[in-house]
Design goal:
The protein is mainly alpha-helical. It has a single domain, classed as Arc Repressor Mutant, subunit A (Orthogonal Bundle), CATH 1.10.10. 66% of the residues lie in helices and 10% in strands. Strands 1-3-2 form a three-stranded antiparallel β-sheet. A hairpin with a 2-residue loop joins strand 2 and strand 3. The radius of gyration is 17 Å and the shape is globular.
Length: 162
């Protein structure tokens, strides 16, 4: 198989399998969350109250998909929209008391799932993988800088241990 085709195929298979696995792990843990919804929640838990545009910028998603994700999270009573007092055209998204209550369990499920998926892959190999993915993204979008994004929005969560 041609290397480029193999990379494309394997990334696609791994991406889909990872999404299915994490969704299943959340479901088995008692939560109806998609990986994309978890990333929005994780961003809000770490960064606090944000506009929909800020969430889109941090997660590198388009605003329309963020609106749909927030709709789903709002229907699950995990977030609420409030008008921005300084700009009534904007909604601020804030976590609910319920989502604060379940945060630790949801994060634990996500990190356990990630650890299982990454298995025996060394930290060094994972760091190389992240750099390669970052370079691939930059090749597709020269304005993209995933490493700078990671520095701008570092996780407040210390579960990385390294």
């Amino acid at each position: 198989m041609v290397l480029e085709k193999q990379v494309f195929l394997f990334l696609n298979i791994a991406h889909n399998s990872m999404k299915q696995r994490i969704t299943e792990d959340f479901r088995n843990g008692g939560f109806s969350l998609s990986p994309e919804q978890f990333l929005v929640m994780d961003t809000l838990w770490d960064e606090g109250v944000l506009t929909q545009q800020q969430i889109a910028d941090i997660t590198m998603r388009d605003k329309n998909s963020i609106v749909k994700l927030i709709d789903g999270l709002e229907s699950r009573k995990l977030v609420q929209r409030v008008s921005n007092p300084s700009d009534r055209r904007q909604n601020l998204i804030k976590v609910t008391p319920y989502s604060k209550k379940i945060r630790e369990k949801v994060e634990t499920l996500a990190y356990e799932s990630a650890r299982d998926i990454m298995g025996d892959i060394s930290k060094e190999d994972l760091k190389v993988f992240v750099k390669v993915l970052s370079r691939m993204e930059k090749n597709m979008d020269p304005a993209s800088d995933l490493e700078a994004l990671a520095q701008k929005y570092p996780t407040n969560n210390q579960k990385d241990n390294g």
